[in-house]
């Protein structure tokens, strides 16, 4: 693998969920690459399969069909244990629901220290907190923060330790304009430092800073691939 190779690549990914004994098709034959040093946006209407695809690319779920490579490593054939180890070391993930991202008993600073430890220390967590407008919150626990502040801490936690791949599911969903501006700035800054950044969004402010937009409709890639 060379530095020019994409950080993430998937090919022919299809997936369905069983609902009342019958499969509900969420993705059909999706192929894409996510380059380093850029912000790539996964767009599309509600229910189009964005979260499903992000979870599969983030090695949280295994697709029914297709390949998923992280930094040149095919992940769909790895054991659950090895996939989890690869995810922890190489991928930062921000879940859509703030409650899924943070541990109630850790302060903001402790989250960042944990993120750095999981990946081998790197980056500058204090600078990232400042950039996200959270410089004064390092000693606070999630319950002492608003939903929007928790979502920004989740982004800092996911980026702590500089994982090469950063995935975020609707990172501005809970945020007002000012906070969205901070998150958008942080996503661009992470891309400028060489991270591969992939976010799902409906938000025009996030779409505006995308280097590339990949559009899903009914689980199928709609843009010119
Ligand atoms: N756990 C699940 N069980 C059953 N069906 C599911 C599950 N998760 C998603 N689906 C279905 O899969 C399809 C894709 O859902 P997904 O959440 O990936 O879309 P999305 O584009 O992220 O939507 P949104 O923008 O509303 O978050 C939808 O038809 C949805 O109902």
Low-confidence stretches: none
Q: Give the H and E element order.
A: EEEHEEHEHHHEHEHEE
- Structural class by sheet pairing and helices: alpha/beta
Which CATH top level class fits?
A: Alpha Beta
**Major sheet: arrangement of strands:** 6-7-8-3-9-10
CATH topology: Rossmann fold
Any idea what the shape is? globular
Which compounds are bound in this model? adenosine-5'-triphosphate
CATH homologous superfamily descriptor = P-loop containing nucleotide triphosphate hydrolases
The CATH level-2 architecture is identified as 3-Layer(aba) Sandwich
Number of domains: 1
Please explain how this structure is put together:
The protein has 225 residues and is of the alpha/beta class. The protein has a single domain (8-222), classed as P-loop containing nucleotide triphosphate hydrolases (Rossmann fold). 32% of the residues lie in helices and 27% in strands. It has helices at residues 50-57, 80-90, 108-119, 125-131, 147-159, 177-192, 204-207; strands at residues 8-19, 22-34, 38-43, 65-70, 73-74, 91-94, 165-169, 196-200, 212-217, 220-221. The strands form 2 sheets. Strands 6-7-8-3-9-10 form a 6-stranded mixed beta sheet, sandwiched between helices. The protein has a 4-stranded antiparallel beta sheet with strand order 2-1-4-5, with helices on one face. The chain is globular and about 50 Å long. The model has no long low-confidence stretch (mean pLDDT 91). Adenosine-5'-triphosphate binds next to β1, β2 and α1.
């Amino acid at each position: 693998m060379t530095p020019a190779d994409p950080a993430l690549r998937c090919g022919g990914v299809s997936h369905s969920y069983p609902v009342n004994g019958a499969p509900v098709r969420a993705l059909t034959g999706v192929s894409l690459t996510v380059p380093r040093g850029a912000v790539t946006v996964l767009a599309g209407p509600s229910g189009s399969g964005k979260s499903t695809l992000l979870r599969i690319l983030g090695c949280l779920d295994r697709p029914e069909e297709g390949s998923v490579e992280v930094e040149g490593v095919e992940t769909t054939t790895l054991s659950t244990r090895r996939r989890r180890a690869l995810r922890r070391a190489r991928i930062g993930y921000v879940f859509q629901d703030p409650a899924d991202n943070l541990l109630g008993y850790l302060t903001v600073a402790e989250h960042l220290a944990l993120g750095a430890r999981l990946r081998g220390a790197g980056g500058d967590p204090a600078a990232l907190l400042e950039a996200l407008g959270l410089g004064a919150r390092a000693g606070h626990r999630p319950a002492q923060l608003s939903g929007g502040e928790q979502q920004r801490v989740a982004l800092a936690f996911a980026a702590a330790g500089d994982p090469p791949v950063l995935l975020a599911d609707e990172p501005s969903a809970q945020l007002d304009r000012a906070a969205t501006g901070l998150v958008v700035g942080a996503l661009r800054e992470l891309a400028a430092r060489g991270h591969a950044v992939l976010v799902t969004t409906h938000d025009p402010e996030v779409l505006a800073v995308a280097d590339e937009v990949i559009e899903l409709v009914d689980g199928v890639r709609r843009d010119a691939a």
